[in-house]
Amino acid sequence: xxxxxxxxxxxxxxxxxxxxxxxxxxxxxxxxxxxxxxxxxxxxxxxxxxxxxxxxxxxxxxxxxxxxxxxxxxxxxxxxxxxxxxxxxxxxxxxxxxxxxxxxxxxxxxxxxxxxxxxxxxx
Length: 123
Fold this sequence. Notes:
The protein is an alpha+beta fold and about 120 residues long. Helix content is about 25%, strand content about 20%. It contains 2 helices and 5 strands. It holds the Pfam family Rad60-SLD_2. It comes from Daphnia magna.
């Protein structure tokens, strides 16, 4: 496995970087969304990342060019070229920062306790 890895022309080679600086490469289709990628990585967690495992896939977030990706964003929508390697950061994060959005303000108004009860209800 040298640096000149053959990447299929219909796949995006995603190099994911953890906070610790550890990296691992995964092949994904341009149709794959950020949440599907997080789930796949969670299900196929690399052995060398074991000391940085997370409890569930939902808290894994992808960062591309300094921005948190929402779960429904696909690699194709980001314009990542198939057949090439793209780099993203993978971080555990309970919620996405959304400084400008309406619902963020409502969430903070309602306070923490109701927020937790809502998520329990969903489960």
